[in-house]
Amino acid sequence: MGPKNRISAFMGKITGTTSGNPDTALMEYMTKTVLIVLTLVSASFSIISMAGWIFNIIPGDTVLILLSMNPLFITGWLLARHGYWRLGSLIPPTLIFSSAVYGNYIGGIDAPAMLLYVTAIILVAMLRGIRDMYWALFFSLASYLGLGVAHHLHIIEQMRSGKTVFMNRITVTISVITGITLLVRFLIIQFRKALDQARSEIRERRVVEEELRVSEKKYRDLVQSANSIIIRINMRGEVTFWNEFAESFFGFRSDEIMGRNVVGTIVPESDMAGTNLKLMMENILKNPESFRSNENENMTRDGNRVWIAWANRPILDLQGNFQEILCVGNDITERKRAHEEKEKMQDQLIHAQKMEAIGTLTSGLAHDFNNILSGIMGSLSLLDNLLKKETINRRDKSDNYIRTALESSRRASDMIRQLLLLSRKQDISLEPIDINESLSHVINICMNSFPKSITVNAQYSEKPTIVMADSILIEQIFLNFCVNASHSMTVMRNPGNAEGGDLTVTVSSAQIHEEEWPQSHENSHGGRFAAIEFSDTGIGMDKETQERIFEPFYTMKKNEGGTGLGLSIAYGFVSRLGGFIKVKSAISKGSTFTIFLPELSDKTVCRERMEAPKDLISGHGTILVIDDEPFVRDVAGDSLTSCGYEVITAHDGMSGISMYRERRESIDAVLLDISMPYMSGLEVLGKLKEINESVVVILSSGYSDDPRVSAGLEQGAAGFIRKPYTAGELSSCIYEILHKHR
Questions:
Q1: Any domain includes 207
Q2: SS3 of 341, please?
Q3: What is the C-alpha to C-alpha distance for residues 117 and 729, in angstroms, rounded to an integer?
Q4: Local confidence band at 415 (pLDDT 50, 70, 90 cut-offs)
Q5: What is the pLDDT of residue 531?
Q6: What is the 8-class DSSP label of residue 516?
Q7: Does 724 sit behind a cis peptide bond, omega within 30 degrees of 0 on the bond before it?
């Protein structure tokens, strides 16, 4: 180890710090350094002053003062060495401050001792901090001003001699040099500290930048190699990032798509179902938080339509303002198609089961229709006979014949409506329904169609029993259970056994606990359930059959052409509604199926059928009736004429348009049939709208669920009336619509 290193090691040992705080450690280090330097300086001054005293150059009191400083500086260093550096830091500025006062005292107020005050103040700032520096400044000014006042009042005696002046100059010069040296040392340390801190910050910044670079590279590698579409769009809908998977999937290179709007490139303005995707994108950009995930139709560069499941995350700036949206997409086209195929197949199975049920009911319904038609034809023939005999004044009989014909017609209309509801295809639509009402529709069909050997009993609940279901599908399921019960009591009996029995249907409410659920059902839960029980006295089932009865295509009616789908569809639909089915059966004793559906106890549903007005409602105005059926035109014309309207009739769309064009100013409303040859009702409606945008058109059709009806209402038709209608229903409809548009 060289001399320089040994000196550095020795200085480090005697000036080492104990504090963990960097600022405190610096002041501790400076305190020990200042005490060592001042000890050496005072020792040197002591030797010089003793030599000067020997040669009678320096007064003895100066020598004594300098000699007394040595033990004080050493004492301060020892205090600092043992941890009391704050106490030791008081000694250097105190002694220098005392030297300044002494210098002014012996040298006069104009002596150069002011530099010692400055040195003392600087030492306090370095060793004690800025706050104590203000106190040192205050005491320095106070003492200097005090000495000046004392000098002015001649309280102190000015001692001016060559020795004194020489000593003052020597003391001040060496003290200033010492102070400047220490100050420079302090500034160098501070500079090194700042330089080290700057170097450390630069190193840390480089490390952070390198970590960010590595992280960004990992992020880009991850994004570019991901098997998902990853894009970013700004608040105008323009693409700002486009990963490699998006390039290969959509067919657009990054440089081709960047800056272009997603609408018109990968998002069509509307999908195949007519949904406005342009409006959807506008809503996403306005409120991205509401579209964290969405599925929509997209398109590739070559025009192919694909379905994408998107996960969207807004990207915000430092102020929290929305800047861009990060969109991660996955192709779900195949899954979507499979789901659509599954739904299509399920609809086909449901429709097939409906057709099976209708086929089962055909003979019974034909018989019932013949009875209804017999009532209509018999009543009308009797009325015709009265007219021929000119006995029409027999009002009681004619009223009875007319009433019978009207009631029979209404029964036929209701039966046709129920058959249409049963056989139509439609999407499942869940809504609160009253089980009592739905079941009553089914019971009416069964009572009109089942063999007379079967007795149908229905026991409804006293209050409405409300469940969430599809009204059409639930009625079909109820009908399936009833038809199965009918078969088990008739065609499925062994030859020689008497056909017939009792079918009892009961509606009630039950509190079901979770442990009561069948083990085969998932998502079991307790609560209030509607219980619909179908109990028959048919052939019954063994245990093996009961375990397989809900399997698709499993049927006991092999010779009767059963599909085996009815109970399977019922099981799936009931499970979807959060319910379950229980079965109890015994051979030759019959079967009991109980459907449990979650009950909506806090809901009420009112589905009272509107009674047709019995009296005609009079009105005034001109009505154009356009219908290709002559008897419909005649009945509608006579009905409206008897109500006070002027009626014009047309046998097809073309003649109806011509009549309206000629007499548009006098025609108040048009009664238009939807289904006509050559020109459909919708086409006629469009032509009438071209002639007069405010034309009042009432559509009529025998099928209220005809999609052309809803299309016509969207085109501006004023209303709709379902065929067949009575004169009272027609007069009420015309009156209400004209009253609304006048």
A1: no
A2: helix
A3: 117
A4: low
A5: 94
A6: G
A7: yes
Identify the CATH number of the domain in which residue 246 sits. 3.30.450.20
The amino acid occupying position 411 is R
For residues 76 and 97, is the Cβ–Cβ distance under 8 A? no
Over range 314-327, report the average pLDDT. Answer: 86
Is the pLDDT assigned to residue 606 strictly greater than 50? no
Angle between helices 60-81 and 91-107 (to 10 degrees): 170
- 25-29, 108-112, 331-335, 444-448: segment of lowest average pLDDT: 108-112
Same domain? For 540 and 506 the reply is yes
Choice between 351 and 481, residue whose per-residue pLDDT is larger: 481
Distance CA 544, CA 546 (A): 5
Asked if 401 and 466 sit in the same domain, the reply is: no
Cα 59 from Cα 416, distance rounded (Å): 140
Q: What is the DSSP string of 448-480?
A: HHS-TTEEEEEE--SS--EEEE-HHHHHHHHHH
Q: Would the pLDDT of 95 be above 80?
A: no
Residue 726 CB neighbours (<10 A): 18
C-alpha 188, offset from chain centre:
62
| Angstrom distance (rounded) from CA 463 to CA 486 | 28
Mean pLDDT of 346-357: 62
The reported pLDDT for the residue numbered 625 is: 95
CA 228 – CA 246 distance, rounded (Å): 8
Of the candidates 312, 331, 350, which is a domain's last residue?
331
* Lowest-confidence region among 223-232, 278-287, 298-307: 223-232
- Find all residues with CB under 8 Å of 318, minimum gap 6, and list them: none
Average pLDDT over residues 241-246: 90
Task: Give me the mean pLDDT over the 237-253 stretch.
Answer: 91
Q: Based on the fold, state whether residues 293 and 414 are members of the same structural domain.
A: no
Rounded CA gap, 537 and 486, in Å?
A: 9
First-to-final CA distance of the chain: 117
What is the distance between the alpha carbons of residues 663 and 670, in angstroms, rounded to a whole number?
A: 12
Do residues 687 and 629 both lie within one domain? yes
Mean of the per-residue pLDDT values for the chain? Answer: 75
650: domain CATH number is 3.40.50.2300
**209 inside domain:** no
Residues, the chain: 742
User: And the tokens for 543?
Assistant: 């245990």
pLDDT bucket at 463, cuts 50 / 70 / 90:
confident
DSSP conformation class of 293: E
CA separation (Å) from 292 to 242, 280, 288, 289? 19, 13, 7, 6
| Domain count of the fold of the chain | 5
Residue 356 has pLDDT above 90, yes or no: no
CB-neighbour burial class of residue 686 (10 A; exposed 0-12, middle 13-18, buried 19+): middle
pLDDT digits (tens, 9 = 90+) for 156-180: 554 444 444 444 544 555 555 555 5
- E strand or H helix at 142: helix 130-152
The answer on 148 and 25 residing in a single domain is yes
Q: What is the pLDDT of residue 182?
A: 58
401/340: higher pLDDT: 340
* End position of a domain, from candidates 379, 396, 425: 425
DSSP helix/strand/coil, 500: coil
Q: Is residue 205 part of a domain?
A: no
Of 22 and 11, more confident: 22
For residues 460 and 601, membership in a common domain is answered with: yes
Assign residue 506 a region (left: φ > 0; alpha: ψ between -120 and 50; beta: otherwise).
beta
Residue 208 belongs to a domain? no
Taken in order 181, 183, 189, 192, the sign of the CA dihedral is negative
Helix (H) / strand (E) containing 416: helix 395-423
Beta strands in 270-370 (DSSP E): 293-299, 305-316, 322-331
Structural domain for 372, as ranges = 342-425
Q: Are residues 357 and 231 in the same domain?
A: no
Tokens describing residue 208: 């952070």
Residues 190 and 151 in one domain: yes
Number of CB atoms found within 10 A of residue 348's CB: 11
Tokens of 106: 């012996």
Task: Give residue 129's identity as a one-letter amino acid code.
Answer: G
